[in-house]
Amino acid sequence: MRVLVVEDEQLLADAVATGLRREAMAVDVVYDGAAALERIGVNDYDVVVLDRDLPNVHGDDVCRKIVELGMPTRVLMLTAAGDVSDRVEGLEIGADDYLPKPFAFTELTARVRALGRRTTVPLPPILERAGIKLDPNRREVFREGREIQLAPKEFAVLEVLMRSEGAVVSAEQLLEKAWDENTDPFTNVVRVTVMTLRRKLGEPPVIVTVPGSGYRI
């Protein structure tokens, strides 16, 4: 899942981004509305965590632009104002969910995951394929009943491949979904991560390399 965090309190923004990355999400961060519009115009995001009171371009205007463009991106709006009228106004603008500050990070994570599921074709809560069971919420992976410990990026790559339901996923698509924009697109990070993932999943191999196209399970 790829997420954009838009928050002018830099310490809070960076803390949220760090926490979501630990949950195997690819996260970009900006600190004002103008930068948010720029990123949205370039990258495809599953969820935007959007502070409402932003400098330069207000969060409401960023939300309106996402709706105007007809993007599948879901918006979780954050604000220090927690009155019912504020929440209603935010939802009427086009936000998909609303979370007042201060908030518990566990709740933020749960809401981001719930919104992320709404940007894709509905799938069962636990993904199963080729003898592998993956639980995105608990971040658990089992193969034939054996639990497999994965690093966040390995988990993210496996989740993308599982969600593709047998379709080929290119290295570029994996890079977009599992890493943030600071990753050099010319590195071999995808290939190395897939190799490590194959080793951890064990025999027989379940991740197939499709020459010139990508990977599939």
From TrEMBL:
CDD domains: REC_OmpR_CusR-like, trans_reg_C. InterPro entries: CheY-like_superfamily, OmpR/PhoB-type_DNA-bd, Sig_transdc_resp-reg_receiver, WalR-like, WH-like_DNA-bd_sf. Gene3D superfamilies: 3.40.50.2300, 6.10.250.690, Winged helix-like DNA-binding domain superfamily/Winged helix DNA-binding domain. One of its GO terms (cellular component) is protein-DNA complex. Residues 2-116 form the Response regulatory domain. The modification 4-aspartylphosphate is found at D51. One of its GO terms (molecular function) is phosphorelay response regulator activity. This is Transcriptional regulatory protein CutR. It comes from Streptomyces hundungensis. The gene is tcrA_1.
